[in-house]
User: What shape does this take?
Amino acid sequence: MRLAKLAAIGIAAGAFSGLFGVGGGTVIVPLLIFWFAYGEREATGTSLAAIILIGAMAAFGQALHGNVDYLDGLLIGIPAIGGVLAGTTLQQRVPERSISLLFAALLVIVAIQLLVP
Amino acid sequence: MSEVLAVILGFAGGVIAGMLGVGGGIVFVPALTIFLGSSQLEAESTSLLAIVPVAIAGVIRQRRYGNVRMADGLLIGALSIPGVVAGVLISNAVSQRTLEVGFAGLLIVVAAQLVIRAMRSPPAEAAESG
Assistant: This one.
């Protein structure tokens, strides 16, 4: 049963990943909390381990279709490591709530732009 | 020049992802379409490559805090294969427009999650514990 639930999480996250180019944390984190009573930090940390495999496999699949720009991927991904470290450090010092709301608004604007070309 | 822009976008995207606890992909995909002129499918595919090093660094860091249940994480990853294959095949079969609409839907879901979390969490000054 536990294995079936882990498989369900993996398959859902994998589909999200292949379809949308994201890691699938949006699916993994809430499901680990809901089904396995994970704490939020544990769920996020554990989702990262899954995302290494999911991201690599989905990138490989898309590369077979000739869709991956390797140079851009590395030029973005490697500096992003430094960015994430800076971001998690900053998190303690900034009004996270206002920034979350601002960023949510930005996401909605990007979504509207995508919907209304 | 676009190489410099990619590095800046990667770093800035990482800062946002780290600060808000969102994945890199949700930032990288729009960055690639808006600033580097990628198509939606290329942006999504390239973003997948970019999130791998970020996730590796994240696991190394989070492990030290005891936040990674490695066996569960790796099992989820390994069992994701059917989903990954389906997602990749579908994304290559549907129109660019369908992908854009789907991604817009995902952005709205993530925005809603952020708002819900922001409303639930106490103001920053009080959030010292944990």
Remarks:
- Chain A has a mean pLDDT of 93.
